[in-house]
């Protein structure tokens, strides 16, 4: 007797580096779910989604460069996805509609507050960058009720656009404008530190007891993480936990089961 597997996948270009198949396979084994999860290299995104659905696929994760295209393609968007301007999770309802969700922000907040016991409420939060990755996580960060949320970007107009989109619950700033201000939590939402670059950050941005979090992750400490250590952050974290937590939220949306993320995070760290 052969077991029937429900088919899920992550679509992106490039995709070979994706850890999603390993993560979801581990979740399925842990929770006793019969799923097959593949990494699909895609050129024509709309066509690929249509083909996947036609072949009985149950749900998709979407990664670079298709998150904005996924947002435009879906029939229904969650409130989180609507504000995020990007979709990283798709599932199909009984009528065959494409439902779009964004789990990145919830993954970030859970990693910080649950895995690491960080505090966001009533903290002064600085976010570096104003691109799609940052927009995608703002709604859950603001829902955690920081005392202040500042977005710094080389092009201040982009940060100002986000401030308007989120009803001015955010303060837009240049990097130069951060001087003489300090923060309890700094989140790097740029990919610059993976390319060996850093935004022009002044000394003294970290308040006493400040934490720093890089949404990117690599085998060794990113340039931003190295900067944070040199500046005296008491806790310096990368985005590996965020990756696993956002995947867990996708898995829950698809399967109605919440996996234990801790063993999977440990597996990826080893």
Explain how this protein is built.
This protein has 270 residues and is α/β, with parallel strands linked by helices. It has 2 domains: 6-102, Leucine Dehydrogenase, chain A, domain 1 (Rossmann fold); 105-241, NAD(P)-binding Rossmann-like Domain (Rossmann fold). It contains 10 helices and 12 strands. The protein has helices at 20-31, 45-54, 67-73, 79-84, 104-115, 132-143, 156-165, 223-230, 240-255, 262-269, and strands spanning 6-12, 35-41, 59-62, 76-77, 89-92, 98-101, 124-128, 148-152, 171-173, 183-188, 206-214, 235-237. The strands form 2 sheets. Strands 2-1-3-5-6-4 form a 6-stranded mixed β-sheet, sandwiched between helices. Helix 5 (104-115) packs across helix 6 and helix 5 (104-115) crosses helix 9 (240-255). The longest helix is centred in the C-terminal third of the chain and has 16 residues, at 240-255. The model has no long low-confidence stretch (mean pLDDT 95).
List key phrases describing it.
globular; Rossmann fold; six-stranded mixed β-sheet; six-stranded parallel β-sheet; 270 residues
Q: Could you write a compact summary of the structure shown?
A:
This protein has 270 residues and is an alpha/beta fold.
Q: How large is the count of helical segments?
A: 10
Return the string of H and E elements.
EHEHEHEHEEHEHEHEEEHEHH
CATH class group of the largest domain = Alpha Beta
Q: Gap between N and C termini, in Å?
A: 36 Å
Fold topology:
Elements: E1 6-12, H1 20-31, E2 35-41, H2 45-54, E3 59-62, H3 67-73, E4 76-77, H4 79-84, E5 89-92, E6 98-101, H5 104-115, E7 124-128, H6 132-143, E8 148-152, H7 156-165, E9 171-173, E10 183-188, E11 206-214, H8 223-230, E12 235-237, H9 240-255, H10 262-269
Helix pairs in contact: 1-9, 5-6, 5-9
